[in-house]
Design goal:
This is UDP-glucose 4-epimerase. This protein is of the alpha/beta class and 305 residues long. It contains 10 helices and 13 strands.
């Protein structure tokens, strides 16, 4: 199988590349910039361009059997600042991509959606895939719209797709901008002897999934013959305060965060029910939160040192 990985030079994408290479797949990576933390990999074809460049997208799809789409121009914290840009950079580019894929005869896609935002404020715990979709951020609204276009393409034009509603991925190679990624941001700050910041009182609960487990789920989704939406999380919740405590244990010593006002787009608790992925894709997480934080801390120290 030859696979085009859109966003393959990013945090999650780099791990998906590793996983699919290990499975012997032929890979072409499309991204706007090279990987931040390592040089290009031998045997991987790289195409540097923007998703808005339809002509180059068509060329990148030549000879491809499937697409893994992991790219996003926004994160939940920034999407509400400019919803028009969010729509243009993500929804419109996806609709154009689906048209070009149809013209090129590529009929399989794995898409990275968002389990943390598409449901809005959950009415049940844990949250199953059939939960109502009531997002309260532009990021989540666009993800839901893209899922709907994937379903339409499936029904009308035979696209096989899996939308993975990922919770909060973390792990090695996560950047240190501080815009997204609670665990990575905290560990980078501590490695640089900086104080960490917590939005709200630390009671917000999230479901954290190690990027290695998410990459394996991408592989299983790609290899499967199923279509639909799947939660991608650990199935367990941890509060921000609990994560800070686990980081304290890993790093050694007390960590005193700076507490900042809570954000109105942060829902109080999201824990994903991942039984569908286990049942239909034969997948389950293998890396617990304590181990994952320790692995990530070891990697961050290597980068800072």
């Amino acid at each position: 199988m030859k696979v085009l990985i859109i966003g393959g030079c990013g945090f999650i994408g780099s791990h998906v590349v590793d996983r699919l290479l290990a499975q012997g797949m032929s890979l072409r990576v499309l991204d706007r910039r090279a990987e931040q933390f390592r040089p290009p990999l031998p045997g991987v074809e790289y195409v540097m361009c923007d998703l808005a460049d339809t002509a180059q997208i068509y060329e990148a799809l030549a000879g491809v059997d499937a697409v893994v789409h992991l790219a996003s121009t926004t994160v939940p914290a920034t999407s509400n600042l400019d919803p028009v840009s969010d729509i243009q950079g993500n929804l419109i580019t996806m609709v154009r991509l689906l048209e070009v894929m149809r013209q090129a005869g590529v009929r399989k896609m794995v898409y990275l959606s968002s389990g943390g935002t598409v449901y809005g404020v959950p009415q049940s715990d844990p949250v199953r895939e059939d939960h109502p979709l009531n997002p309260i951020s532009s990021y989540g609204i666009v993800k839901v719209a893209i899922e709907n276009y994937l379903f339409m393409e499936h029904k009308l034009h035979g696209l096989d797709y899996v939308a993975l509603r990922a919770s909060n991925p973390y792990g090695p190679r996560q950047g240190h901008t501080g815009i997204q990624g609670l665990i990575g941001t905290h560990l980078w700050r501590l490695a640089r002897k900086e104080q960490i910041e917590v939005w709200g009182d630390g009671s917000v609960v999230r479901d954290f999934i190690h990027v290695g487990d998410l990459a394996e789920l991408c592989h299983r989704a790609l290899a499967s013959g199923v279509s639909g939406n799947f939660n991608a999380g650990s199935g367990e919740g941890a509060s921000v305060a609990e994560v800070v405590q686990k980081i304290c244990t890993t790093v050694g010593g007390d960590v005193t965060p700076i507490y900042k006002p809570g954000r109105n787009f942060d829902v109080p608790r999201v824990v994903l029910d991942v039984s569908k992925a286990k049942r239909e894709l034969g997948w389950q997480k293998t890396i617990c939160l304590d181990q994952g934080i320790a692995d990530t801390w070891a990697w961050v120290q290597e980068q800072v040192g």
